[in-house]
Amino acid sequence: MNIILFGPPGAGKGTQAQLIVKKHNYFQLSTGDLLRKETKKKSELGLKIESLISKGNFVSDEIVNQLLRETISNLKYRDRIIFDGYPRTIDQVINLDELLNEFNQKAELVISLSVPREIIEKRIIGRVTCEKCNMTLNEFFNSREIELHPCGNQHFIKRKDDNLTTVMSRYDIYKKTTQPVLDYLSKNLRFYEIDGTQKIDEITAKIDGILNV
Ligand SMILES: [Zn+2]
């Protein structure tokens, strides 16, 4: 069964995808990875991709499709693909559906990790690191661990984080562009929304439950 995994940046989507890959013998397909791998191969297509990216151009849907087709047609991955970060638009949904159809497959299941904006923000701005042992905790979510930290709680410092604006703007773009996709998929496929604010193993247990049905 092919799976589409959704989640905003910072929701722990990558971690969960990797766990599904390991536990359930899946292939994680992210278009970014496909493009990077092809570039590394120095194939004709890879060189074309490299040149497009280095000039700041977008890689066309046609090229992405060619790479998707290679993976989807590979019998090794048949019905074992987890789509991570694709499709992101309705056009891509339709395109993926056609591609899968061509190889007698379909995406049957959508898992969406939801995390409210303010939690993503707190995860970033609350991050503190112990100067002595380098342990990173979060002042919003780990106040007790900080209080009881073996080095004492006075060595925690906040590193200046230039990431915040980038992550939040990616979150906003994600929300805006993927909502129509989620609305569409939730009507047409088996759709599960999981609270992404839970602990990693709690989320994993929920996903396991869904996959073992
Ligand atoms: Zn410490």
Defining key terms:
alpha/beta; Rossmann fold; 8 strands; globular; binds zinc ion
Short description:
The protein is α/β, with parallel strands linked by helices and 213 residues long. It has helices spanning 13-24, 31-41, 44-54, 61-72, 90-102, 117-125, 143-147, 163-188, 200-211, and strands at 2-6, 27-29, 81-84, 107-114, 127-130, 136-138, 156-157, 190-195.
Note the topology.
Layout: E1 2-6, H1 13-24, E2 27-29, H2 31-41, H3 44-54, H4 61-72, E3 81-84, H5 90-102, E4 107-114, H6 117-125, E5 127-130, E6 136-138, H7 143-147, E7 156-157, H8 163-188, E8 190-195, H9 200-211
Parallel strand pairs: 1-3, 1-4, 2-3, 4-8
Antiparallel strand pairs: 5-6, 5-7
Helix pairs in contact: 1-9, 2-3, 4-5, 6-8
Bound molecules: zinc ion.
Residues 130, 132-133, 135, 149, 151, 155 line the site of zinc ion.
Word description of this protein:
- There is one protein chain.
- The protein is α/β, with parallel strands linked by helices and 213 residues long.
- The chain has a single domain (2-116, 162-211), classed as P-loop containing nucleotide triphosphate hydrolases (Rossmann fold).
- It has 9 helices and 8 strands.
- The protein has helices spanning 13-24, 31-41, 44-54, 61-72, 90-102, 117-125, 143-147, 163-188, 200-211; strands at 2-6, 27-29, 81-84, 107-114, 127-130, 136-138, 156-157, 190-195.
- Strands 2-3-1-4-8 form a 5-stranded parallel beta sheet, sandwiched between helices. Strands 6-5-7 form a 3-stranded antiparallel beta sheet.
- Helix 2 packs across helix 3 and helix 6 (117-125) runs antiparallel to helix 8.
- It is globular.
- Zinc ion (ZN) binds at residues 130, 132-133, 135, 149, 151, 155.
- The site of zinc ion has 7 residues, from loops.
